[in-house]
Each structure stands twice: as C-alpha cells, then as structure tokens.
Amino acid sequence: MPYDLPSTLHATRDGAVAVLRLSRPDKRNALDDETVKGLRRFFAELDEDVRAVVLYGEGAHFSAGLDLGEVTGEPDIHRGILHSQMWHRAFHEIQFARVPVFSVLHGAVVGGGLELAASTHVRIAEKSAYYALPEGQRGIFLGGGGSVRIPRLIGVPLVQDMMLTGRTLSAEEGYTFGVSQYLVEEGAGLAKAMELAKKAAGNAVMTNFAVLHALPQIAESSPSAGFFTESLMAAIAETTPEAQQRLRDFLEKRAAKITHKKD
C-alpha cells in the first residue's frame, strides 16, 4: 500500500479492508514517536476505496504501551505537553476515521497500548489479553487520551483502581467490564476481526459515517440536542441514493432478513 510508514508498521489490503500491523515484536510493540506519527499518517491518508480497517500486533502482544525512552531525559514541561498532544492527534485520527476500525487484542494491552485500543471502534480480545495502566507505578500519567476514552468504557472507579493499585484485568474481566465487545479463543482474533470488518465494509457509507461521527456526539449531548441531531442525521442518511436502493431491495425482498445465530 502506498503509505509512507515506518518499519514498525506494515499495511496490506484484503478487498475493501485495510489491515495494519504493529511490527515491533522485540519491544512488545511499544509505541515510539515514529510509530505514533505513522499511525496518524495512515488513518489520515486512507485510500477512498478502503471501507474498514483492522489493527493488530505482531508477535505475542498487541502493545505494551509507551516506549519510555521517549519521555526520559532533561525535564521539559512544554515538550511533555506537545508530546502528549502528538499522541492525541494520532488517536483522534483513529477514533474519528472515515471508516470503522477493528482492533485485535492479545497479550499485553498496557498503558498506551490500551489507550490505542480505546480509540478503535470494535475490539476483539483473545483469551491471552490482559489490561493494565501502570502509569501510577511509573510516576507518570495517561497521555494518549486514555483519561478521556478509557473511563467511558469501564468507568472512572475501575480506572482509578488500576492506576492506584497496579491492578490488571484478564481478557475475561475486560470483556465483562467493557474493554472489548468480543472474546475469542487464542489465535482466532484476526479472523474474527476480518469477518466483522468485511460486514461493516458492506454497509452504506453514510450510515457508517453517522455511527462513527454522529452517534458519539448524540450520546454526549443533552437529550433535546441529541434528538434534533438524530433527526438531521436520519434525514441525511435515508435520502442518499445508496440508502434508497437498499430500502427498495428490502421492500422487494432482494435483501436478507435479520435472524439471530446462536454461537
């Protein structure tokens, strides 16, 4: 794929799905500055025909978080603020990407790795995954947007517990608390993510846009503002040519009906 990426990232395509691999297994996919900047470029410059992205880590771990070598040296508050904001910009490109992003979580999903995962839309955890926020023990604080995103997934009290006491969560606990939406057997995460990503890639473009961009805004709005925004988004979505064709297909029995398949 024609992206200017560092050697720590590797991108491929499977039809409408772009697959991005964190490729720093010798460092447990710790995130250095070049990797974070590469993530930003990748999501900011997605090809127009990409309809979904799958993100996963090479080797035994998704990501062990921030490469601490990036924040050592002579203390500089201004530099620290700018460094955190650089991470914010990169993960903002993921959360507010043009297309849905699915992440495969296995092994360590720690610190900045959990911040990265929290910026994706659908998280599939393998049973080896474990979650931690060791910043409290390192004398630092969340800097990649985790203090905003992670409490929205699992709540402030649990984030406080993890940071104050060093508590880790197993894959099963993470699934229960809301870190991941799916929990699968070891080694099955990528296949499950590709299956889900291909389903999402088949949705109407405007509907996916509404789910990624309007829904979070509505959820955080006052009820009156949320209802009004919803009505505008509904009207926009249903009047697109793609939506009109899909509605005709359903009414004329060319579209599959919704059924529930038990696992």
Structural summary, described in words:
The protein has 263 residues and is of the alpha/beta class. The protein is built from eleven helices and nine strands. It has two domains: 9-201, 2-enoyl-CoA Hydratase, Chain A, domain 1 (Alpha-Beta Complex); 205-251, Lyase 2-enoyl-coa Hydratase, Chain  A, domain 2, CATH 1.10.12.10. It has helices at residues 33-44, 77-95, 112-118, 135-138, 146-154, 156-165, 171-177, 189-201, 205-219, 223-238, 241-251; strands at 9-14, 17-22, 52-57, 101-105, 108-110, 122-126, 130-132, 169-170, 182-184. It has a six-stranded mixed beta sheet with strand order 1-2-3-4-6-9, with helices on both faces. The protein has a three-stranded mixed beta sheet with strand order 5-7-8. Strand 3, helix 2 (77-95) and strand 4 form a beta-alpha-beta unit. The model has no long low-confidence stretch (mean pLDDT 92).
Highest-level CATH class of the largest domain: Alpha Beta
How many domains would you count in the coordinates? 2
Chain-averaged pLDDT:
92
| Strand arrangement in the largest pleated sheet | 1-2-3-4-6-9
Q: Uncertain regions: pLDDT < 50 for 5+ in a row?
A: none
**Would you list the SSEs in sequence order as H and E?**
EEHEHEEHEEHHHEHEHHHH
**Structural class, from secondary structure content?**
alpha/beta
